[in-house]
Amino acid sequence: MRMLNKLLFLTLFSFSLYANSILTNYRENGVQDIEKQMDLELGNIQYWENYLTNIDTSFGYIESYSAILTCNKETSSLSLYKQNKKKKFKFLKNYNAFTGKMKGDKKKEGDLKTPLGIYNLTKKISKLDSFYGPLAFVTSYPNTYDTYRGKNGSGIWIHGLPTEQERDEYTKGCIAINNSNIECLDKKININTTMLIINASDTQQNISKKLLSGILAGLYKWRYSWLYNETQLYLSFYANNFIREDGMKYEHFVKYKTRIFKKNEKKTIVFKNITVIPYPNEKDTFQITFKEFYASTSFSFEGDKVLMVKLDKNNSFKIFTEK
């Protein structure tokens, strides 16, 4: 008990000193200086290691999804995980599934392959050809990484089985489950908060909190450099082979951002609904998504942001494409 009281005293004392430091800084320099100090601290890996202590990182760092569907193409199965009241993802149901006739990752229209990747469910369709069963969920294929790699095609759904026709034991690239199961799935998920991960085998789980802490700290260091117009630090987060989704290559991007940063505009940048997920079948590759709120004197934006990053041997990341 004596030791516990001592630790409590030291903690409160340290906090008091920190609070006094903040108050003094505020008194002498105003709120903007405090804000900059806080923005810098968000890039501290220790902050994120402490923050993630009790966070479920089974599939990665996830703020905005309450359900995850994982498709294992090797075993032809679709599994549902949902958050419980403690915000932990728990296995709920496994469905037998049909996937594309041909093995491997989808690359082009008509190759009869189911893609490997991370997708959203963008729409539910209930009025459709009887071949697809009672309903279908439309996926976001092709995603940002698919586009970067030159993959094409569309119409990758999770759907049911024919109600009036015979069918083969494969699809043209979609994921198909039996009709009672897709109706059951429809009752268990909200498509706006459900993520789909399609893998060649088992989906990676129990992601390292230390690894995720480093990525999240890096994300906020990147934000800091952007927020305070630190051009060289900002550009250091980009790979030399970077290509933005609209086709802008690294050299043009460097010139464009250098010109923008020279304006030295004051900005507001807020990230919400952050998700950091290891990409299926890709070593040291992560997809980072978030809702971005950006405002400066000359421009404002509110919408979804996607960063595809590759980790180096020190687990620092480089952005190789973004949307």
Can you put this structure into words, describing what you see?
The chain is an alpha+beta fold. The protein folds into 2 domains: 31-57 and 207-322, Nuclear Transport Factor 2, Chain: A, CATH 3.10.450; 65-199, Beta Barrel (L,D-transpeptidase catalytic domain-like), CATH 2.40.440.10. It has 8 helices and 13 strands. Strands 4-3-2-9-5-6-7-8 form an 8-stranded mixed β-sheet, with helices on one face. A 5-stranded antiparallel β-sheet has the order 1-10-11-12-13. Helix 1 (2-29) packs across helix 2 (31-41) and helix 3 (45-51) packs across helix 6 (209-227). The longest helix is centred in the N-terminal third of the chain and has 28 residues, at 2-29. The chain is elongated, with a radius of gyration of 23 Å. Mean pLDDT is 92; it is low at 6-15.
